[in-house]
Design a protein that fits this description.
The protein is an all-alpha fold. The chain has one domain: 434 Repressor (Amino-terminal Domain). It is built from 6 helices and no strands.
Length: 101
């Protein structure tokens, strides 16, 4: 059955691993940008700390590079921050959908 409504499309998207990967990358890059702003740091300054180019930092912040755990740690350390990876249980909405099936 083809999805016809936005909630149906959204539910279908949640079934794909790419959806979850993109969400994790977006959340991480938002944290990086928030920390850069808090510190008053530019892309150029972050690039210097990473030993990279500003263009590379721009790609990172757009989520256009391979986000390995090592890349995430390098970014965090350049910001004098830490990365904490955690697993969480299903969201309430996800749990309700799973229970309804």
């Amino acid at each position: 059955m083809r999805p016809r409504t936005f909630p149906q499309l959204f539910e279908r998207a949640e079934e794909h691993e790419d959806y979850w990967v993109a969400g994790a990358i977006l959340e991480f890059t938002e944290d990086v940008v928030r920390e850069m702003k808090r510190q008053g740091m530019t892309c150029t300054a972050l690039a210097q700390r990473l030993g990279a180019t500003p263009a590379y930092v721009t790609k990172l912040l757009r989520g256009k590079v391979n986000f390995t755990l090592a890349t995430m740690v390098r970014l965090a350390r350049a910001l004098n921050a830490e990365v904490h990876v955690q697993l969480t249980g299903p969201t309430l909405a996800g749990a309700k959908r799973a229970h309804a099936k």
